[in-house]
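Hi again,

Forgot to attach this to my earlier email, sorry! This is the prediction with zinc ion bound. I've pasted everything inline since the attachment limit keeps bouncing my files.
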Amino acid sequence: MTAPSSITIRRPDDWHVHLRDGDMLKGVVGHTARQFARAIVMPNLTPPVTTVDAAKAYRERILAAVPEGMRFTPLMTAYLTDNSDPAELVRGHKEGVFTAAKLYPAGATTNSDSGVTDIANIRGCLEAMAEAGMPLCVHGEVTSADIDIFDREKVFIDRVLRPLLKDVPQLRVIFEHITTAEAVAFVDESGPNVAATITPQHLHINRNAMLVGGIRPHAYCLPVAKREKHRLALRRAATAGSPKFFLGTDSAPHAREAKESACGCAGIFNAPHALESYLTVFEDEGAIGFFEDFASRHGPAFYGLPVNEETVTLERVECEVPSSIDVGAAELVPFHAGETLRWRFRD
Ligand code: DOR
Ligand code: ZN
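Structure tokens for the complex follow:
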């Protein structure tokens, strides 16, 4: 089969993104809005977005930061804490403010200090969410000091996720940014109320990218990239056409100096070339025919939202990814910095 010279698909959505706030928000939101119609916006600001009012105000700040001429719908999430109020969550969902709620195990990642210390503490919230049909987005890593960082996702499945779904079987769960073959298997064997997002970086890199030939902070994110066999399992899952897997970039900007540090921040800024990055994977796996499903159909279907009517086109033209991007508030090193990708998003 000859390679197509362009591909047009329904406009995709990003089912997991960090847009930040203030000047950083102003600098990065256009990169997401350029490619995606909607996005599930992470609530891990300081302070975190825990109330309906805070989410409404944040949504307004995002909309105000979207560049002229771009249409973009932020889908807000509630940050769960040990003290979250089930009634506030469900009210926010019913009012169309909270699309979902987000579980950060306390201490798992950036701005997760106010997260949940024990899943038992949010049992009432999870039952109320299941009842209301409100989805739970999950950062699936345990945080115990005795668990090796490369095992934290796998252990989370056994200690937290499996028991949770046994106890609250109707809960709709998005296991976010999965990184392991075990997570793929868990999602595959779970009911239709369990799905997962997959980032571009976890489809492209394994842990060698971070550690071979020198320590490379721009390849560091959480959950951390794993061994090659896990990357291959993720590529198979993403490109096989299963409705349980869909696009979520986890684009997470941090200023260059915050990454290139003795204690560098976790997060990969992949928004500028997200679709080009994903499409390369689908092409290499001989699965271009499933690209639109992964990028534009499976997410809306899981969240119960309509698909987008607009389209986007990617052309088979070389696309040079800059070594850094000045977003005003900061200098950011994007995913694929300095590489040439073989697809280009058409503006
Ligand atoms: O790498 C990450 N960065 N993983 C997360 O879970 C959070 C994110 C961030 O906010 O920077
Ligand atoms: Zn994230």
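DSSP finds twelve helices and 15 strands in the chain. The chain has one domain: 13-307.

That should be everything now.

G.
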